[in-house]
Amino acid sequence: MRFIISTQELNYLIGKLLNVVGQKSAIPILSNILLEAKNGELILTATDLTVGIRCFTETKILEEGATTLPAKRFAQLVRELTALNVEVSTNQHQVTEIVSGSSRFKMHGMSRDEFPNLPIIHDAKQFNIQQGELKELLLRTSFAVSREDNRYVLTGVFLSLSGNQATFVGTDGKRLAKTFKEIESNQSLTGNYIIPLKAVEEIIKNLTNDNEMASFFLYEDKIAVQSSDSIVITKLLEGDYPDVDRVIPERPETIVTLHREELITLLRQISLFTSDNTHSVRFTFSDDELMLTANTMEIGEGLVKMPVNYRGDKLEIAFNPNYFLDILRHSKSEAVKMGLIDGFNPGVITDESQQPILSERPSPLYVLMPMRLGEE
What we know:
By secondary structure, the protein is α+β, with helices and mostly antiparallel strands. The protein contains 6 helices and 25 strands. It has helices spanning 7-17, 71-80, 131-142, 197-206, 260-271, 321-329, and strands at 2-6, 32-38, 41-47, 51-58, 60-63, 65-70, 85-90, 95-100, 103-108, 125-130, 156-163, 165-171, 175-182, 189-196, 213-218, 222-226, 230-235, 254-259, 281-286, 289-296, 300-307, 315-319, 335-340, 347-351, 365-368. It has an 8-stranded antiparallel sheet. Strands 14-11-12-13-25-24-23-18 form an 8-stranded antiparallel sheet. The chain has a 5-stranded antiparallel sheet with strand order 5-1-7-8-9. A hairpin with a 3-residue loop joins strand 15 (213-218) and strand 16 (222-226). Helix 1 runs antiparallel to helix 2 (71-80), helix 3 (131-142) runs antiparallel to helix 4 and helix 5 (260-271) runs antiparallel to helix 6 (321-329). The model has no long low-confidence stretch (mean pLDDT 92).
């Protein structure tokens, strides 16, 4: 194998792969990346046996072939090279010579025969979607995914396909994010898929051109997403995802409009007065006003206010301010709408620019579970 490539381009491609390389894997080859030079293309591949990424670019191939190199060390070396181009060549003993300007290095690799094969993508159900739209759908749901392994099925983003609609959901049981998109496909798409969070993060990272299309390939036990210069393939999580629609309030009795940036500022302030154990802030709605309070023995107390379009009896409810902030950061409008029933039922939040909160399909839609009013 022998090829010449821009140092910047090689550094860029390696950077796309590093997060899935098994640094401390019991299988040594998983700490390597696979380099293949063929048909005028350089193809780089990494996998941890759950998530795999393949990147490709056209380059000057002088001799076709393949090898694997230690990912971390190879990445560090390429990052330090200062010449514009780098020439990489491998002999039959898996010794790779890297020449850049006046610098010359030799790195020992392993045969590509030991490297796991990524699944071949064929005969799959498929739909196409703009990269920017897919990135937005994943960003607006993945932040709510559980980070706790004991809630296994909640550690991924749930994708449900029905007819021409794709619905994405993320939840950890304390907050929920749900959004959907009408899609076009020449196939009848029906099915449920739980995509591991690590794979979702890699898909987002590889959606680099918002206006170009991405292809979504669907199998029973895996999915793949192909974008401009890469493809991410991942196994799916097994298990039954809970029916999250049951926790979404159908007809909140109170709907309040909240200025998003102002509420973010106040929540940041008041969260400094919450305890590490409870992280609870009391929301008190009274005529034309929202008051946020927090009181802890070890820190002290805080009180902030903002005007809101609320009229009626005083309504009190407690929320985790960090969860609320996550939702506000992933909203886009100048204001959000919040639907409330009472102090004991979940609050539902939508962007003001989206459909009315009582419509059948607001998107995106967020649900936040309340905390006990005594906890703050």
